[in-house]
Structure formats: structure tokens, C-alpha cells
Amino acid sequence: MNMLNFKSIKTQLIIFLVCFALVLAIKDKDPAFLFSTLTAVIFASAIEALVLYLKTRTLQISESAVITGLIAGYVISSDEVWWKPALVCSLAVLSKHLIRFQKKHIFNPAAFGIFTALLFLGVTAQWKATYLWYVLAPFGIYFAHRLNKMEVVIGYATVSCVLFGTQALLLKVPLWNIFGYFSYFYIFMMIIEPKTSPLKPLGKYIFGTGIAVLIFIFTEAGVKFDAELLSLLLMNAAVPLLNRVSSKRGGLV
Amino acid sequence: MRKITLFTAFFIFLAAVSVAYAHPPSDIKITFDPATKVLTAVIAHNTSNPLKHYINKVDVGINGKEIIEHSISREDNNESQTVSYLIPDINDGDVVSVEGYCSISGKLTKEITVKLAK
After folding, report:
1. B20 in A contact zone (CB under 8 Å)
2. Do B79 and A178 touch (CB under 8 A)?
3. Got the DSSP string for chain B?
4. Residues contacting residue A130 through CB under 8 Å, at least 6 positions apart
């Protein structure tokens, strides 16, 4: 891992997440958040290094694993016992290597690990700083642009605004409240993950749109699980199909 | 570049109108009335539908020990849930924590140190 390659988008994302975590921990006087995040990063990196060693017989630390650990650290509650974020990261990394289609992993690793742990292990989520849109939006737009995933964000934001906006009008809720339903950390740090989202513009728009529609449906159904993570995982599963459809259409595609 | 400009404009607009955020409670304002020994917490949580997406549990702890677990089946309104508890055996300097859980995902914990009137 070349941590000093500042042109690498992964390195930039790691630096952003680490600096942001430090600021949040100081601002909120929350050292447990740093400890929990550090635990997640160590375990994600260690499990990934072990798997890569078994595959290649060389010791590697993957930037992707560090990012997975950082994301898990932000999402999982800091007051969980240390082995829970560790387990989340183990599930995340193992899903990347075990659940594959056409030699690519299907699910966003962090989303898979966190959702599985929330559902089956009684882990709770905090979604640290997900409401700090004034930090996450500008950096997130930059990352989405660099990763060529702006279409995902635009599709998601547009359809969310239409669905929740219509509902707000029907229920006579102030229209501006709909922006309150956005989880900015989720939008800008999770759904734009490059390996598990479509390649072509049409596929990316459908991907973002599909996530927004599923979240709306799950939320209105009153589900008791994390609607956003499940929506992302379901759309991850549709990515091979979206790639095939948008390729057949010439890539608008 | 045009896309970035458009999206930046969108988020400037958003900045102007946004009031509260996402699934976990965005804030918990805790007050304690030393005269009545009533703890009140206003849990900020924006929702489009208070019957389907709401604060479904509030835990109250004193000095790290949970004393109240309160299950709730809907939210007061589209923006917050207010809860009040009488805590007669509280002492000066006790740290009271309030933990609010979203029915979908996410929680937030805040705490205050109690100051009883002399």
C-alpha cells in the first residue's frame, strides 16, 4: 500500500475519513469512537492481509480494507464491545472474497458486514456525522466525481426528492423536511463504491434510482431493519444485469 | 465540471433549507428540573411518517447504569420526540445519559451532569 500517493483517490478518501474522525472525536469528546474505528481498521486490514497472503503468498495491506474499516467505524456504535466492529469487518472482507460473480465481488463489503451484524448479531448503528452535510457533501461530490459516479448520486437524490417531496405534499409536512431524510455519509461514502456499482451511465442512474425507490418502499412499510443498507445490497446484486443492459444499449447511454 | 457546479448549487440550496437530518436522532436536548426531579429530553428526529419511522426506544442511565428502558410506538410529530421521567432518587453530580433509537437504524446518546439546588 502506497499511503503517500496523494493522487490516489483511495489515499485521499482514507486521509479524509481519518482527519474527519479525529475532528469528530475531539469535538464530541468521544475517544471511544476513535478506539472503535481503529479496531475496525486493524481487523479489516488484518483479515484482508491474511486472505491475500493465502492467495498470493505475499504480505499486502489493502487500501480498500482500510476504507472498509473506517466506514464500519463510522457506522457501528462506538459503545459496542471491541469484538463486534472486528466481526463486522471480518464479515465485510470475507464477503468480498467469497461472494463473487464473474471474478468480481458483488456486495459493498462494508454494507454487507454492517447489515449482517445489525440483523443477526444485535449490533447497533450510530451513523456518526451522517447529518454533517456541509462537510460530507463537498468532499463527497469531489469523490463521486473522481470515481465517475456522479450519476449514481444524481439518480438517488432526484428520485428521493420526488418521492419524499410528493409524500410531504400529501401529508402536509414542510417540503424542506425531505432533506432531513438523507443520510449523507451513506450517499457519499457508500453508494458510490466503484467496484460494486455499474460501469455505464445508464446503469449508474438506474442504480441510484433503484436505491432511492427501495428505501422509500422499505421506510413506508415501517421495516425495523436498516432500509438503506439493504437497498444498497439489493441493487449491488443487480449490478451485473445493469452492466449487461447498459452495454447492450451502447452505454448511454 | 458542469455537473459539479450544478450539484454544488443544489447543495447550497440544501444548506439554506436543511433543518435536521438522517435516521439517527440529530440531537438530544436534556433538561433536569431539580425542584420536581423531572428529566425531560427532546429527541430531534426528522421523519416523513411518524407512524412508520420514529424513535422507538429511549434508554435512560445514571452513572452508566440503565434505569429506564422506554419503548415507543410512534413519534410525537415530524420533527422530534419528547419524553419526561420522574427520577426521585437522583443525587447531585450524577451523570444522566439519554439514548434515543431510530426504529429503522441508528442511535444517539447525550448526557448531562445533574446539579441539585441547595
Report:
1. yes
2. no
3. -HHHHHHHHHHHHHHHH--S-SSS-SEEEEEEETTTTEEEEEEE---S-TTTS-EEEEEEEETTEEEEEEE-SS-SSSSEEEEEEE-TT--TT-EEEEEEEESSS-EEEEEEE-----
4. A74, A136, A183, A184, A185, A186, B21, B22, B23, B24, B106
d(CA B70, CA B60): 8
Using an 8 Å CB-CB cutoff, list chain B residues near A77.
107
- Chain A touched by B26 (CB under 8 Å): yes
Tens-digit pLDDT profile for chain A (253 aa)?
Answer: 555 688 899 999 999 999 999 999 999 889 999 999 999 999 999 999 999 999 999 999 899 999 999 999 999 999 999 999 999 999 999 999 999 998 899 999 999 999 999 999 989 999 999 989 899 999 999 999 999 999 999 999 999 989 988 888 888 877 777 766 688 999 999 999 999 999 999 999 999 999 999 999 998 888 888 999 999 999 999 999 999 987 776 554 4
Whole-model pTM: value is: 0.86
A127 with B49: Cβ contact below 8 A: no
- How far is the alpha carbon of A202 from chain B, nearest alpha carbon, in Å? 16
Spatial CA neighbour of B21 closest among B99, B79, B76: B79
Instruction: Report chain A residues whose CB lies below 8 A from the CB of B105.
Output: 118, 125, 127, 225-229
Determine which of A33, A123, A173, A192 to mutate to test the interface with B (most B C-beta atoms within 10 Å): A173
Residues A125, B10: C-beta atoms closer than 8 Å:
no
